[in-house]
Protein phosphatase
Amino acid sequence: MPDYSHALTMVGQTDTGLVRGHNEDAIHLDPVHGFAVLADGMGGYNAGEVASEMAVERVVSFLRTVPLPATGKPPEPVQWISWLVEAVEQANMAVFAAASSQADYRGMGTTLVVALWRDSGLYVAHVGDSRLYRLRGETLNQLTRDHSFLQEQVDLGLITQAEAEQSSHRNLITRAVGIGPTVEVEIHQHAVEVGDVYLLCSDGVSDDVPVATVVDVLTAMRINLPMAAAYLIQEANNAGGKDNSSVVLTEIKRPLPGDGWRDKLSGWWHEFLPKDGHEPSA
């Protein structure tokens, strides 16, 4: 498995906020294996925290141990998609089993968004309303679609997006990990470019930090991602800090390992390239 930390810069921050007594968000950053995970738990006292941590832990464990082909060839995109679905399904089984067997955990569940960078592409798996955005140049695009009651109403044309953003029912989700024996996972694949910045966030950020502010922060602070993450969290708290808030920021700073860039170079250049799939140091 190539080391993706040569190509990715990752930072993350999570905060309890100003109202909640504990933090039910969980995040994990793995630049070496090229993925990031964010979950926002729900349930009774501390159960949401258990659900989110359990789900993240299961996804991380699975993605770190996927059985790569014995041929040495990189897996096909369909294989990464299959593995992502399996990772989320395993997380769902673990949370559901705990919720079914322990009274204190009954009814717990969690949102989940997983970003996996491979071969010039990004694979995204998500359940619930935690989001993933991409900043390319100065344009911010939301790459996930909320699994929520309000989003369904928007899709049906019953309300506008502006009305949804002002609604008091923003947190009613229609899918979650761990609330049933099976889970419907939404998967997408996107091409990536050097310079892209990706934002995973919980609804403590997406509900209370305007998109225009996110664009301004990421554009102005893309050379200092730790500061950008801290600023987004502070903006959520400045808006009242009613919920836990979490962000994971990832910048594509070099071509991803295994994306074929080596094969695009001809002649004697190949003799001077490192053999581990990384681009040469500047």
Summary: The CA atoms of residues 44 and 108 lie 7 Å apart. The chain is about 30% helix and 25% strand. The first helix runs from residue 47 to 64.
